[in-house]
Amino acid sequence: MHVAALSLRDFRSYAALDLGLQPGVSVLLGSNGQGKTNLVEAVQYLATFSSHRVATDAPLLRAGCAAAHVAARVVAAERSLLLEVDLVAGGANRARVNRAPVRGGRELVGLLRTVLFAPEDLAVVKGDPSERRRFLDQLLVVRRPRLAGVRADYDRVLKQRTALLRSAAQLRRQGGRDPAGLGTLDVWDSHLARTGSELVAARVELVEALRPLVRDAYAALAPGAPAVELTYRSRAGVDALPDDREAWEAALLSALSEARSEEIDRGQCLVGPHRDELVLALGSLPARGYASQGESWSLALALRLASFDLLVEETDSPPVLLLDDVFAELDDRRREHLAERVSDADQVLVTAAVEADVPSLLSGSRFMVGAGEVSRA
Predict the structure, then answer these.
(1) What is the model's pLDDT at position 173?
(2) How far apart are CA 377 and CA 367, in angstroms?
(3) Intervals of the chain under pLDDT 70
C-alpha cells in the first residue's frame, strides 16, 4: 500500500499543494514550523478521520478559511482509490471515495492504513490512561474498520447515560426525589453493556495479540532490560476474561448494578471501557512513573513497531509508515534499529529538521518543505 499523490487546499499552512509520492522512503526536510508535520497529519487524517495532534477539526483549517480539502490517491493490491475529505467550519465534514459521497468518515476508515510514530507517542507510556485507551482504539479501527461504528455507538450511549446521572445527582443534592427519567437507567445500562462489551472484547483480543510482539520489539531496542508486560484492567472488576462479548456484557451489567448508587451520587458513569486501563510494566514496575526517559521512548517505539508487525501479519497490503520527527528524539542505536525495522516497508514518509538525523539506510526521495511549499531536493 502507498500514497501516490497528496492534494491539500487550505489545510493548516497550505493554501494549495499537489505532491506526487513514490513507494519506498520519502524524507520531508525543513526547519521547524514549516509544515512538515502538517503533511503526515493530512495522510493520517484520511486514514483515521481524526488528527493525532488536536481533538477538533477547527485548527486544521487554514487561518481565515471556511473550509479545507484533503485528498490522496492510494494504491493497494493493484487497486487505486481516491480518498477525499472536505472539512467545513461549523458544519459536517464530507467524505468521498472515487468521487462518490460516503456517509461520514466511517466508510473512509480502513481504506488507507497507517502506523504513525510521533513525539506524542511518549504520552502513551507516561500519560493518563486515556492515552493508552486511545492507542488501543485507534489500532482496533485500523485492524477492524467496523469497530469505528461500535466506538461511536458506545460514545452516544455514554453521553446519554451520563446526562441522566447528572440530572439525578443534581436533584438528589437538592433533596428531591430521583427524576422519573431515572427509571430508564436499566435500559441505558443494557445499551452500554451491549456496545461496551464488544469494544472491551476487541481490546482484550488486541492486547493478547500485541503482547509477544511488544516484548520482542522492546527486547531488541533495549537488550538485557526487564521484559515488558501488558495487562488490560477493567473497571468491571475482572481482568482476565477472554475476548468473549457475552461474558463481558454480563460482567458489565453486574458492575453497573453494583455501582449505581455511587454513580448517582457523583453524577458520573464509573463503569465501562471509557474507564478501563492498559497497564504497561517493565518487569514488576509500572512504566508510568518508573520508566526512565530512554526506557519510555523504547517502550513507545516497541508499541508502534508491534502495531506495524501485527498489521503486516494480518493483511496482504502493509500499512504506510509515518515517522514524524522521531529520529531527533533517539540515540544512534535506536535510530539505526528503527531504520532497519522499517526500511523494507512499502512506503515510509519521514519528517526531519536535520538530514543528518535520518539514518543512511532510509535512502530514497528527498523533499524540501518551507513557507507552505514542497519541492524535490
Answers:
(1) 76
(2) 5
(3) 104, 175-182, 237-243
298 and 345 in a single domain? The answer is no
> Reduced to 3 states, what is the DSSP secondary structure of residue 105?
coil
* Domain of 28, in residue numbers: 1-113+316-377
Contact predicate 20/4, CB 8 Å: yes
**AA letter at 282:** L
Note whether 90 and 137 are same-domain residues: no
Instruction: State the DSSP code for 176.
Output: -
CA distances from 54 to 58, 120, 168, 373 (A): 9, 11, 33, 23
Contact 10, 61 (CB under 8 A): yes
Count the domains in the chain: 2
- Residues 116, 56, 123: CA angle, nearest 5 degrees: 45
Q: State residue 247's pLDDT score.
A: 87
C-alpha cell at 371: 513557507
Instruction: Please answer whether residues 13 and 38 qualify as being in contact, where contact means their C-beta atoms are separated by less than 8 angstroms.
Output: yes
CA distance 246 to 295: 38
Q: Within 13 Å of residue 330, how many CA atoms lie on the same side as its CB?
A: 30
> What is the DSSP pairing of strand 114-117 with strand 228-233?
unpaired
- The pLDDT value given to residue 52: 87
CA distance 10 to 52: 19
Q: Are residues 250 and 356 in the same domain?
A: no
Contact call for residues 49 and 39 (beta carbons, < 8 A): no
3-state secondary structure of 345: coil
Decide if 119 contacts 293 (C-beta within 8 A): no
